[in-house]
Amino acid sequence: MLEFSDVAVAHAIELAVAPVFLLTGIGAILAVMTNRLGRVIDRARVLEERLEGASPESLATLRGDLAVLSRRAKLNGRAITLCTTTALLVCTVIATLFLSAFLRFDASIPVALLFIAAMLCFFLGLLWCARSIWQRRACASDRVELQNRRQMSKSALISRSCDKIQFLVSQKQTGSDLRNILI
To answer: Does residue 114 lie within any of the structural domains?
Structure first.
């Protein structure tokens, strides 16, 4: 019959704390990656709707953008798979630590190998996510949309500044008051 030592269990818990925190970080990264995948899918749906009424000139651009979005979705999917594999390997590390405490065997080599495999999967998952981000630059419609957003932001800033100046002029503020408010 097996006898469990409180010290062995406490030691296993100590060793399992770091991998548990690692799981939390992996979960946060997975949330970011799934959100990115959702945005890619939403963008592809918008472009597919534009295909129906598109002129022949813009049809090639839209198809090219959809091809880039398809590659990005595949890269994001692979990144999610790799990070999920990382989480499963870390869970296996935790389970192995507890089993070694209960069954009293040396788990240092299996734990080390599992942890190395987990970090390799995590590295590759982050690399695939980065590749997806780099692919975004290849999408022409995304570049145009980003330029429009920047232009709208500049226009909104100028409009707010003009509104402030008009308000201050209507209140008969001095030049130093105008400078303090605008800065």
So the answer is: yes
